[in-house]
Amino acid sequence: MTHADLELVHVTKRYGDTVAVDRIDLRVAAGRYCCLLGPSGCGKTSTLRMVAGHEGVSDGDILLGDRHITDLPPAQRGTAMMFQSYALFPHLSALDNVAFGLKMRGVARDERHRRAQALLDRVSLGPLALRKPAELSGGQQQRVALARALINEPRLLLLDEPLSALDPFLRVRMRAELKEWQTQLSMSFVHVTHSQEEAMALADLVVVMNQGRIEQQGAPHEVFNAPRTEFVARFIGGHNVIPLPAGGLIAVRADKTALSREPLAAAANVVPATVRAVEYQGTHVVITLASEAVPALCVSLPEAKFDAMPWHPGDRTCAYWASADVHPLAA
After folding, report:
1. What domains sit in the chain, N to C, each tagged with a CATH number?
2. What is the pTM of this model?
3. Where are the beta strands (DSSP E) in the chain?
């Protein structure tokens, strides 16, 4: 199995007069885990489907390694797609589901079953090869779908919100397995999600999309700590977006924002406020503030610090932050 860089050059997708993807440029190096992240309707799924060949490209080019795949049918691209619903055949065993792609290529029964069994063994489902999808858990069905996607030895695996149907506990476990499989296979995964937590946990490269365009791309640490725009700061979460009196915006992380019970002198980094809500989240407590100067302001305090001196709705306070923790945002 050989792997390759994926490159999108000025790729556009139109549905009539609607532009779903607007001249995006993206390069995913071989062996990277890329997450396309954004709200519904931002263009991430259309982008994935164009790479897979399930949607036509209105303008631009898609390359996989040294091959121009823009106009190739899905079966000739060297990609495989793992769908949100898994799309397993309910009447077939796990073994025959995995072997189905080889059957369509005319591979003999014994050979396709041998290869399918080897893949099921690799994803720890060997003993369950003869079970049908209804006899498998959600996580086991996902592994069957992964093995089926890998049977034709693709150069690139595409995943369309593969964890969204799972319960929260299984979702965390399965994303760890996805990352482990991607590392073991040393191949590129391109994974569509609307979950910031999922993207941060899985990706080497996070691509934040908004209204058909790429707002920002980079390593998770970079995108979280240095959001370029108001949209990225708000969508990634964990930031306060603060308007400046002279115009423009800054972002300050909620965990870098502090609270004072004593009035503080007026300054650029001080906002008088009232506690509106207190939300316990286990390791930390999120305090939502009401302020005339900043419409949406939150402070994240470690649980122990909050317990030592609790805050309650209606308490008057001043939120403040250090100048070193301010991050300017593009207009």
Report:
1. 6-225 (3.40.50.300), 250-328 (2.40.50.100)
2. 0.89
3. 6-15, 18-28, 33-37, 59-64, 67-68, 79-82, 156-160, 188-193, 205-210, 213-218, 239-243, 249-253, 258-260, 270-280, 284-290, 297-302, 316-320, 327-328
